[in-house]
Amino acid sequence: MAKFTEQLQQAGGPEWLTAKRQESLDLFTSLDVPSEGVEAWKYTRVDVDFDALQPHPKRESISDKAKLPQSVQKRLSSTDAGAFLVFDGPDVVYRTELPADLTAKGVIFTDLKTAVEQHADKVQQYLYSVVPAEVPDDTTIAAPGTTPSKSPDPSEGKFSALAAALWTNGAFVYVPRGVEVELPLGSFRVMSEAGTYTATRTLVVAEENSQVTFIDEQDSDDLPGTYAIGAVELVVKSGARLRYVSIQNWGKGVTHIQRQRGDVERDGTLNSLVVTMGGTLSRTEMQSYLRGQGADSEMLALYFASEDQHFDHYTLQHHAAAHAHSDLLYKGVNSDESVGVFSGMIKVDLNAQKTDAYQKHRTLMLSSEARNFSVPQLEINANDVRCSHGSTTGPVDQEALFFLRSRGISKELAEKMLVTAFLEDVLARVPLQSVVKYIEGIIAEKVGAA
After folding, report:
1. Model confidence over 377-434: pLDDT tens digits?
2. Same structural domain, 129 and 190
3. Handedness of CA 258, 247, 214, 227 (dihedral sign)
4. Range of the domain at 43
5. pTM of this prediction exceeds 0.70
6. Coil, helix or strand for 431?
7. Any idea where the SUF system FeS cluster assembly SufBD core domain is (predicted)?
């Protein structure tokens, strides 16, 4: 596609990055759009005319916070982030600087485009190491800086290849060995032009025995025919602790496709939370690759699909080393004519003895016209493990509803209370009160209790 080649050339950057972009674009061109024939996309179809895709227009930086979108201003006034970036489409339009004491310790927090220019050695070492375009969800990830194996089913990589080739910007976080960043760092991404697409990439690196929290938020008004495509790479070195929070609240008409993957080394810990509330179609992939012994991954998610929304979550807990632990809890609500999809895999490699892995998915159905597909899976290649998975789908508990109504509470309000309590189970495990409060506000709007 000639226009994509032109966009790639306009992206600029060093030779190694241009070569990687071109390799990814060549792969994208050779692949088909994932269809129902691909197991990982069995229940989700993305109708996209790539020839008609237009990049989101560029935006100028803003020095006055009062000129930012109201939704962003509201969030910035309530966030406890130590520093943050605001993206409008492909460009950083507003930022706050990292505290001087963290800069002095070697912490880097900037946009990825700037990082390529100013911190090329670190970016080149880790970029594309965790989410390469050509690696499927169920294969071994190569060590950072090495070449991963090819996908046996390349149709899975169509959107990842596009994001790898044409990403315009994103956040870059680097925390040196032994440094603890107490306050969260944040990225607020908005889109403001309908009928366009934005490709982004986020790279977070926590070196040995470091600690950091990164909050990644997406928000927009209703934007028909708009696409948000991205990748998130989370590098957790030995003994490091990384908490990653993604809150997707796009407006109607937005198609959201994002692959998030963490690479966790010995005794490292990755805590992730994925919140899906917006967009018309959302496909989020969250994977943890437990590379080292003692690695730990907590994967939390909540979603609320209403009207004609279609939310698809695809997860992987990949245990490649012994004595590692993972725990997944995904909870969702489907109302009206919405569709919810969950496909989760616990994969245990041959030598990953003493694996301890859990997977639980629960869905609350508020409408007989809504649909939900849940596919929990296990692939165990070791003989000394403890793994469990489970999924439940059902309506509001009638006994609980009767109890509330017997106290004089209307049926509508009682249902809202039960939905909020159902999702609160996930939020109770998140120690970020400003984030929890914000998510509770979105939930309240969804159930009509705001």
Report:
1. 999 999 999 999 999 999 988 888 889 999 989 877 888 888 888 998 899 999 999 9
2. yes
3. positive
4. 2-395
5. yes
6. coil
7. 192-422
